[in-house]
Write a structure and sequence with these properties.
The structure is a homotetramer of 342-residue chains.
Chain A (H helix, E strand, L loop, with lengths): L1 E6 L7 H16 L2 E5 L4 H5 L2 E3 L29 H11 L4 E6 L1 H14 L3 E5 L15 H21 L3 E6 L6 H10 L3 E3 L7 H14 L4 E5 L27 H13 L3 E5 L11 H19 L5 E6 L2 E6 H5 L7 H7 L5
Parallel strand pairs in A: 1-2, 1-4, 4-5, 5-10, 6-8, 6-9, 7-8
Antiparallel strand pairs in A: 2-3, 10-11
Helix pairs in contact in A: 1-9, 5-6, 7-8
């Protein structure tokens, strides 16, 4: 049995831990051989492979990134993409494929498996934690930890000065990182993409905070959008609807707060810092176990499935189920946390 | 409504986050008043109280330890203990008690609630993660993170030198910290209290590791016990059965490995470092949500219950259920992880 | 003998360590009493004081910020400022004043001491490390450490993707933080205020880096200025000279790089994160020793002087000497480090 | 010009940064070629070499350990050692040798250079910071930072419990790590090898600390020795003089304190954790600059010299001067810090 492995989509701490788990168990317990495909779906499309064995996975557990490289290549957008993949898998004598990726990468795996008979097993990956069917995805805990540490540090300034501190964190479509880091960091306002925010409400919280104790910390997901008014787009042009814009909400909000409250505001934009560096212990544990269970799926011939976390156990779900819809922040949870706002 | 709060047992990062969650929601949402009892059950026994309101919980979220103090006092071991507690609760006009603690502290809460009609709500606390009925306890993730970082650092030496590195981590009765940090840190041997270890097997793993790549890292829980032979006790005397001993297994094992394999061995004993300092983001999230749900239990008059984590949700369980038995490492899980040994 | 202490200017990790050193030695060795003045020079101006004794300094060593508060108040810009200070010092029976601050705060101390006979001892404080007469100031090592860790994390993404990563760090007038963190983090381009940068040269380095290995990391001090062309100001207006602008150079540069090289660029703006949180061990050591030596200056009646680091020893210099000129990055040092560019 | 490089002695974070600095500048500025010798002096003895060029040093800056390997091999203790080294250098066409190491490794370089005409440049390396002629050695700041973080965490327990916490840190012959981490961590007792300690004095400090506030933290260098009485040796036997013993002083002292004061004591032994993992920003800066200056020494034909830190500048000193005597903690400095004891 020869198993191919690929990683697709954006960086996510823990990818290497998954790969190591797959290879260690596959070689030692089941005697499998492995082929690494480079740069996500580009690997099987172009037949670009790399050696993947025990020495290749030595020492990679604590390292961020992925030894296999990644890309956002989608074979369904290439002429004859599926045929080329099947051809290259055959040429490499690969009997099964483990696909580690997010919504897009896994969506391809689901179609290849269900429609074209390519035996795929999925491992969910998204730093945003927005995949259904799994309690958590690896990388998320690391990102939350980094954002929380940044917020912790801002408290020092908040205690000593009269400045509003705005922190923009990752989260295009969902507010998981903002919610968790904002709560863990003791932020006074948390703004998420799932709920349009009211700048006047934000300013009211900010002002009340100054009265009660010291300066406020505002955590805003990069995809958060105001209810009213327009935002200046990244390229300097105005968005007349106020909801098409990919970044810069932190800086925009800081300026609005300054103008409306008369208080100075400062912005921190963490950016890619949140997805780099060594994975947290939690993410290494989760990623490793995903790897161990993914190779078990291969052994069981259980294709078209994805491994997922439920409580403390790893379960198997259809890939299609996992990618069917975005896991957004439940309004009840956002409200629960709202007791700390202001 | 006036609610008493106490924290009992050993240190655990996240205690202050629970207290803050309770008070913030209790005051702001329900208009409750609070009384803090000092030093666990000693507080209500002696009527030793402290002010507990919004200003008192400001800034405590990232701080380890507990602003209420702690102790291992057991009122059932004091003459008239229960009567004194009921008397002091009445004197302080406390209508309900939130008890944050481990097996012993919660055991008292269960009896007071079930047998003596004291309205108690429990919040589970153990750094060892060995309480049934909850997926995780707060403090555990922090401890695992600290131990993992230490193991990470040891890899540098392991790569450069030919020394066996033994790390003794917490875990008197269960191996959760050893298992999680050992896996996350990429240890080559993990020894837990649930399974007697065979020193010859450990030496075989150690020796094979030297052959394969570089020097081995052995993670051993403080409560791990060898199958055979006697261990030198902490006071220097010999334990003729080899299973009564409270600490020092790391140093003992390093010496055994040196004698049996001829390889130099070095020991790291992390000790209380694992339970101090700021809680991880995960633990702050969990502890805060425990606090928010505990005060909801009080509002609902749901006494004799304990909050617990199941998946990503907080549920309520009878305190007695939670303290009935120790949650030990499942042999199947230990075996799953064993693929990384040697 | 009663000694007053104040802290002025911006946040800087280590302020509390200085205060603790002063008080511990002053009380225990010399039997002095202390008065804390609140919020920099505002304290002695308004007679706003706080208790400062052994219990007051307990536990503050690892904490960022300052227990005395800070401000940028300048008594020479207030009517009768000097008279009010002398009056309040007399009223509080303060015999000497220890002033912990940067250029502005110490400038006041120098004039008060030299022109008005107020017995002042100075302790240098600037996170930017730009004070003459001392090898290092406390807070700088902490800031460099935080920025370096962020750059470390960005390497993960740089290895996996083809994006230019721009990090804006502190440094309005000098490039010390950019230079040290950029070198320690292995940045491929470091831009400092002392030397106008050439965007085309930056783009050449960026492009050559893509050829040689993986994506480049550009560290830019917030006060760095391009040689040519205009920058968009923070308020959206254009600066026709290209050298008046207080922030936003990171975002501006990222956009320029995208346009000129065709490569995607992402920006991280660390902001106040760099000046918050616990001081590094180095900064605690330095700050504590500054405190111990400052109180010795008081004992020796050595006023108008400032403590300073030279090698591993603490020396005394005239305050005026220290504040006479900004310590900028030596061009030879910048050139030495330039071997790592591109 | 072909330059050989070797690293000898124990692990020290920053070794790779030195190597990278040497190679980057040597190749880019001077057009030199390099040969890496493996495992310290064993490399030139056995002719064991490895490729050392720009790709070989890519990405190694943040990594602990040394890509060249290390050993404690001493060519003067091998028959014909010097002749074999000269022969292998000639065979590899190596014109100069950069030797990165501590007292022993540099001692060999000094003799080879001075007595046998082998053109050597030295770079000082010791985590213990005990080399004369340089203000600091790289690795020391990292070790101090790790020990300080551990002490920080212990404060949590010290605040909540009535236990004495003993931390054993590195330092066989000198107390630099104990002194710096103990001061930075706010320890209540610091014991160093340079000054015999009096257990009764330690117990007096411990007892007075319990009275004043909360539980004491005792930092003890592994090489610290009591004034009176015997210590149990690591192998269980008794040392009748009380001053020959290589490790275990932490555990021994904890037991003594328990017996003499009646207070419970707990021990943390950090061990090799202190010398592993990524170097601090300070150490990367220092190590890189050492590398840049070492290759300048080669260019200048300045052999028999060692680079050293003086203030913020790098200077050159004779290797023999640097290795002539151990840099011990100045009694005046120890006394200065003593104001924080008890």
């Amino acid at each position: 049995m020869r198993v191919g492995v690929l990683t697709g989509g954006g960086d996510c701490p823990g990818l290497n831990a998954v790969i190591r788990g797959i290879v260690r168990k596959g070689v030692q317990e089941y005697g499998y051989d492995f082929t690494g495909f480079r740069d996500g779906w580009r690997g099987p499309l172009d037949g670009d492979v790399t050696r993947l064995d025990i020495p290749a996975v030595r020492g990679i557990l604590p390292r961020g990134g992925t030894i296999l490289g990644s890309s956002r290549t989608n074979p369904f957008q290439r002429d004859g993409g599926v045929a080329r993949i099947k051809e290259n898998l055959a040429k490499q004598e690969v009997d099964a494929l483990i696909v580690i990726g997010g919504e897009d990468t896994l969506g391809v795996a689901a179609r290849l498996s269900d429609e074209y008979g390519v035996p795929c097993v999925g491992v969910p990956k998204t730093i945003d934690n927005d995949l259904s069917a799994t309690d958590y995805t690896f990388g998320f805990d690391t990102a939350v930890g980094i954002a929380t540490e940044a917020i912790d540090r801002l408290h020092t300034t908040a205690e000593s000065h009269m400045r509003v501190l705005v922190v923009e964190v990752m989260g295009r479509h969902t507010g998981w990182i903002a919610l968790h880091s904002g709560l863990a960091g003791g932020a006074n306002v948390i703004l998420i993409p799932e709920q349009r925010f009211d700048v006047d409400q934000v300013c009211a919280w900010v002002t009340s905070r100054f009265g009660a104790s010291y300066a406020p910390i505002v955590v805003v997901a990069e995809g958060a959008v105001p209810k009213d008014g327009a935002m200046v787009l990244k390229d300097g042009s105005l968005d007349s609807f106020g909801h098409v814009r990919l970044s810069g909400v932190g800086e925009w909000l800081a300026k609005e707060i300054e103008q409306r409250t008369g208080k100075e505001a400062r912005t921190t934009v963490l950016g890619h810092v949140q997805r780099g560096g060594t994975p947290s212990a939690f993410d290494r544990w989760l990623a490793t176990r995903f790897g161990l269970h993914a190779i078990d799926c291969v052994r069981d011939g259980d294709f078209g499935t994805m491994v997922a976390l439920r409580g403390t156990g790893i379960v198997r779900v259809p890939i299609t189920e996992a990618t069917a819809r975005l896991k957004t922040v439940d309004p009840a949870l956002y409200e629960e946390v709202g007791v700390f706002f202001g």
